[in-house]
Design goal:
323 residues; D-Maltodextrin-Binding Protein, domain 2; binds 2,6-di-O-phosphono-beta-D-fructofuranose; Fructose-1,6-Bisphosphatase, Chain A, domain 1; 5-stranded mixed beta sheet; 8-stranded mixed beta sheet; alpha+beta
Length: 323
């Protein structure tokens, strides 16, 4: 079964045709992005273009081109706001639009030249007259979210709030359904964190990691393994498939007081998927999806994965209520 057949025959209301049309259009954009990345003629895609995006990250050619591709594919959809990592502010598509989208057109761009997996992340909200900026709502209000991974295989993870689906792109440009109900194993022994930041983490993170790696021997005799790709989409896909815990906490660096990842177009869409797959996503304390974003590019500490392991983290990390 491919994505189009699935959309036409298997998705029931309350998902409107307009919403499904947006998802289909993003999937066409992802096919184009995948071809672009796979094209040997485009050796220039990892080049810095000399500017810094709204987040303060160096912008590469591929960041800009993916944003243009996505915008082009979405422009005729029933969308009011287009909110992208690559734009300074939300872009108004159509005043009467029924939905709004937040998107990171190219996640993991520091990995482009190494041929490690990179991706596209998106979340879709229904327009709500109570909000002047639809995308500044809690993630709990998301109608759909998903991400593409451009790795050895191009994969698409999607939720419409009723479980998590996994598709793989075939040679005929069709996304084929591989799994219609991904569930994250609740237990894990796999850790995913950028260890080079150890000395600048808050104590709650150090306490937990020290127990995982046996510096502090008071935890169970479970032995952990570490996997860190450094592309959120790739680390998240691994956790969806075989469990694990991902952590990008705040740290002592300037600008990292609230971590590195962005609430609106990274943490919220990913957390919706994780929750739909039976996992947990928190900022160290609160559910990510319960947070109220104040601005488009705001950052948030992000910890997600196997539900039992997050409980273990909370028990150890929040010892005596201390962070
Ligand atoms: P990138 O900067 O390469 O786009 O959100 C961006 C992100 O990658 C995530 O995909 C990844 O998890 C994280 O940043 C990696 O950050 P560090 O380089 O600080 O480890």
């Amino acid at each position: 079964m491919n994505l189009q057949n699935f959309i036409n025959n298997e998705i029931e209301s309350p998902n409107s045709n307009e919403l499904l049309n947006i998802i289909e259009s993003i999937s066409f954009a992802a096919i184009k992005i995948s071809k672009l990345i796979f094209s040997p003629e485009r050796k220039d895609l990892d080049q810095n273009i000399g500017s810094i995006n709204a987040d303060g990250d160096k912008t590469k050619k591929l960041d800009i081109e993916t944003d243009l591709i996505v915008k082009q594919h979405l422009k005729d959809c029933n969308l009011k706001w287009y909110a992208s990592e690559e734009e300074n502010a939300e872009v108004l598509f159509n005043k009467q639009g029924k939905y709004s989208i937040c998107i990171d057109p190219l996640d993991g761009s520091s990995n482009i030249e190494t041929n490690a997996p990179i991706g596209t992340i998106f979340g879709i909200y229904a327009e709500d007259p109570n909000y002047s900026k639809t995308i500044l709502q809690k993630g709990d209000k998301l109608k759909a979210s998903g991400f593409f991974v451009y790795g050895p295989r191009t994969m698409f993870v999607l939720t419409l709030g009723n479980g998590v689906l996994l598709f793989q792109l075939n040679n005929e440009d069709k996304f084929i359904l591989l799994d219609r109900s991904i569930i994250i194993p609740p237990n894990t022994n796999e850790l995913s964190i950028n260890f080079s930041n150890y000395t600048i983490w808050p104590n709650s993170i150090k306490r937990y990691i020290d127990k995982c790696i046996g510096v502090d021997k008071t935890m169970s005799n479970k032995s952990y393994n570490m996997r860190w790709i450094g592309s959120l989409v790739a680390d998240c896909l691994r956790i969806l498939i075989r469990g694990g815990i991902f952590m990008y906490p705040e740290d002592a660096r300037k600008g990292y007081e609230k971590g590195r990842l962005r609430l609106v177009y990274e943490a919220n869409p990913i957390s919706f998927i994780i929750q739909q797959a039976g996992g947990t996503a928190i900022d160290g304390k609160n559910r990510i999806l319960s947070l109220h974003p104040k601005k488009l590019h705001e950052r948030v500490p992000l910890i997600f994965g196997s539900s039992d392991e997050i409980k273990t983290f909370l028990k150890i990390g929040m010892l005596n209520g201390k962070k």
